[in-house]
Amino acid sequence: MTSFRFSLQAQLALFIGAFLAIVLGLAVLSTQSLRSVDAKTDALASKWIEGTRLLGELSDRISEFRIAETYRALADSDEDRIAAEQRAATNRLVIEQLQRDYFALFGAEPRPDLAKLRDALAAYLAAHDAWMKREPDLASIQAARSVSALHAAYKAADDAADAAIDELKWSAGAEAETAGRITRGAIDITLLAASLGIALAIWLLFRVKERITRPLAAITEALAQLAAGNRHVEVPEIERDDEIGAMAKSFDVFRANAQALERAHEATRAAQEHAQILARQDLLTGLPNRRMMVADLHAAIERVEDGATACALLSVDLDRFKPINDLEGHRIGDAVLCEVARRLRLASRKNDIVARLGGDEFAILIEMTPATHLDQAMRVAGRALAAIAEPIEIGDRRIELSASVGVSLCPENGLDVGTLLRAADIAMYHAKRDGRGRFRFFEQSMDEELRRRAALESALKKAVAAGDIRPFYQPLVDLRDSRIYGFEVLSRWTHDKLGSIPPDVFIPLAEQIGVIADLTWSVVRRACRESLHWGAQVRLSVNVSPMQLKDPLLASRLLATLEEEKFPPSRLDVEITESALIDDVDIARATLAALQAEGVRISLDDFGAGYSSLYHLRAFHFDKVKIDRSFVLAMQHDEESGRIVDAILSLLKHLGVTTVAEGVETEEVLRRLAENGCEIGQGFYFGKAMTIGDASKLLRRRRVDRRVA
Ligand code: C2E
Ligand code: CA
Ligand code: CA
Predict the structure, then answer these.
(1) What pLDDT shows up at residue 267?
(2) I need a labelling partner for 383 at 20 to 30 A (CA). Which of 79, 214, 283, 600 fits?
(3) CB-count exposure of residue 685 (10 Å: 0-12, 13-18, 19+)
(4) Angle CA(486)–CA(488)–CA(492) in degrees, nearest 5?
(5) How confident is the model at residue 5 (pLDDT cuts 50, 70, 90)?
(6) Which ligand has the minimum distance to the alpha carbon of residue 473?
(7) Is beta strand 601-607 parallel, antiparallel or unpaired with respect to 624-627?
(8) Ligand 1 contacts CB of residue 663 (under 6 A)
(9) Which atom of ligand 1 is nearest to the CA of 516?
(10) How many Å lie between the centroid of ligand 3 and the Cα of residue 631?
(11) CB-CB contact of 356 with 282 (8 Å)
């Protein structure tokens, strides 16, 4: 279709204008034709009809006049003759009047019939006058010659009148013919113009359909498709320059916006979906997460309550996974977790739910008919343990793992999520305690422990808040001159009812329930305050939990505490274990450097135990290294341990680090350590952890002893 450079409005105006012009022209033409027909008709009515009437009457009068003449010629008496003469005179007057009227109507036209009529009439009247002048005697009136002359004049006049009437008839016919022709012409023109108008109207309709209706319908259809979700629908008529084109372009913009909107909507939906998956799934292994497991367990418990089913919850915890993660790196650790997840899935049945609860903790939920769930749980637990015990190979690494599994049963062990999870956990701890790599079912006797632990947790929270955990002091002795180097601060907690609780129990618990920082600050602050008066020569050694070393604010908080207590940083040693250095090396390095810059000395605690690495000795500048007490204790009856300690001492001496041996209980051990260059000793041989009063007494006694010596 050709594209006009005109707007639709202009095109429509043009078409309608042309149409109106045709109609108007037609009307003007018709009016003109009618007018001329009307003029002709008027002429026929006013002139020709009147003319004919006049001529007819003239002809009648001429005959009357002739009859009057005849009466005069035949009159018997003067009386009759005079009456005939009067009658002739009257007719003569009428004839003359008619003649004038007629010539007034047609006299201007140069017509031969008129001239002939006028002449014939004049001749007749002249002959009449001449005849009238004769003596009124019958003989002269009837003189044959004059009578025949008069009759001839009458005949000529009458014939001329008839001829004029004929002429008039013919002229009227000609006029009517002209009017008819004009009328026919007008009808022809009207017909032609009307056909032209109709053709134009049809063409206009066709154009409107082609240019407006059809494109609008196409655009409407496209719009409907867009509304129905077809975002890639072609927009018709977009190339046009007129209003339809503008509309199509707007529609295209709308479509683009709709697409953009839909994409945005799609992205939002995907993000929501992703968020929902995140909320339900463990990202690393793809297993359901704790949240999801709790929801599933909840639903399973409801079914158990309905009486149709029973279920078992297996708590699966990897043994010694942390060292793998720490030493092999998180990438290997993650791969191990994924492999464990895969194997647990394989070890369980299709309908069992395997979830990762966090870290190296997994769970399996088994739903069964009541009689069989115990057997099933046992079978799945056995298969899970066997699956995990198979060595895992990642690249060239071969990793050997084991797991401990605790099982709780529903309805036997409880009918709520919290109880079942805790029961499975308790059973799992028992399995671990029994030597790892095995499973245990929850037993009611474990409940006691469960309650004890809960009671201990709440007691510990209260004790930390109340400052009931106090610093005790264990002496550190310089082996070269037997002087007291300082004291290690060891926390002690004696509970009213529970009695004395060892730090091996409450320190890990405080870490688990998140009160370790409060505990440390309270104990460190109190130790600084109590031991301030011992003087600059006696150092204080405090333990900082690995968890706290992840806190970037640790150094500034510790230094602030020292400042508040006016305790010189140069009197303080901080003991950390190697496990503290593994998680976030950068934060640990910065913290230790900040403390050392203020004069605080850093000791590496428990060296040789756990996962000692020579790397740390090189990467961090420790002021002291404490050889783990297990080696020193073993030296008493195990020569190999003795040789290990000798070797460690030799190594550390070469690195230029101060060495401390803890767990010195006997003089022999002390002597051997001293002979091998160990600089500081700590152990029951010198004294257990004691109160501030006893520590102060010990210091005083030592000083007195030295003076005496
Ligand atoms: P540690 O830092 O290795 O502390 C030394 C532990 O060895 C102490 O046990 C101490 O009593 C014991 N010990 C010292 N000499 C001998 C000996 O000759 N023979 C034997 N058999 N043992 C000896 P304790 O006080 O039970 O502390 C256990 C652990 O609890 C500590 O080990 C330390 O890791 C942690 N701990 C204690 N107090 C605190 C504290 O305030 N904060 C932190 N973060 N940890 C603490
Ligand atoms: Ca220590
Ligand atoms: Ca230690």
Answers:
(1) 85
(2) 283
(3) middle
(4) 140
(5) low
(6) 1
(7) parallel
(8) yes
(9) 44
(10) 11
(11) yes
Ligand 3 geometric centre to CA of 570 (Å): 21
Element (H, E) at 603: strand 601-607
Q: What is the pLDDT of residues 116-152, one digit of tens each?
A: 888 888 888 888 888 788 777 777 777 767 778 888 8
Cα dihedral 157, 159, 161, 164 sign: negative
- 290-442 and 454-708: identical CATH topology: no
CA distance 202 to 193: 14
- How far apart are the CA of 696 and the centre of ligand 1, in A? 20
Residue 293 contacts residue 311 (beta carbons within 8 Å): no
The CATH H-level (homologous superfamily) assignment of domain 454-708 is EAL domain (3.20.20.450)
Report CA(299)–ligand 2 centroid distance (Å).
48
For the Cβ of 606 lying below 6 angstroms from any atom of ligand 1, the answer is yes
pTM check: above 0.70: no
Find out whether the beta carbon of 476 lies less than 6 Å from any atom of ligand 1: no
The tens digit of pLDDT for each residue in 498-510 reads 899 999 999 999 9
Ligand 3 centre to CA of 612 (Å) is 13
> Atom 17 of ligand 1 has which residue's CA nearest to it?
663
pLDDT band at 70 (very low <50, low <70, confident <90, very high): confident
CATH no., domain 290-442: 3.30.70.270
- CB proximity list for 207: less than 8 A, separation 6 or greater: 11, 15
Query: Which ligand 1 atom lies nearest to the CA of residue 491?
Result: 38
Among 629, 636, 684, 691, say which to mutate for ligand 1: greatest number of ligand atoms within 8 Å of CB.
629
Ligand 1 centroid vs 690 CA: distance in angstroms? Answer: 12
Per-residue pLDDT at 327: 82
Report the share of the chain in percent with pLDDT over 70: 98
The mean of the pLDDT values for the chain is 88
596 lines ligand 1 (CB under 6 A): no
Cβ pair 157, 121 in contact under 8 A: yes
CA distance 223 to 214: 14
605 lines ligand 1 (CB under 6 A): yes
pLDDT tens per residue across span 508-558: 999 989 999 999 999 999 999 999 999 999 999 999 998 898 899 999 999
- The domains of the chain are located at 8-205, 290-442, 454-708
* Rounded CA separation 497/502 (Å): 14
Closest CA to 505 of 473, 549, 551, 469: 469
| Dist CA 218 CA 236 (whole Å) | 7
Q: Is the CB of 543 under 6 A from ligand 1?
A: yes
User: Is ligand 1 within 6 A of the CB of residue 523?
Assistant: yes
Three-class SS state of 602: strand
Helix (H) or strand (E) holding 362: strand 361-368
If you write DSSP's letter for every residue of 532-578 in order, what string do you get?
GGG-TTSEEEEE--TTGGG-TTHHHHHHHHHHHTT--GGGEEEEEET
Provide the 8-state DSSP code for 604. E
Is the pLDDT at 82 greater than 80? The verdict is: yes
Residue 329, SS3 per DSSP: coil
Pairing of strands 484-495, 499-501: antiparallel
Write out the two tokens for 424. Answer: 């499975």
Q: How far apart are CA 1 and CA 346, in angstroms?
A: 69
What distance in angstroms lies between residue 490's CA and the mean position of ligand 1's atoms?
6
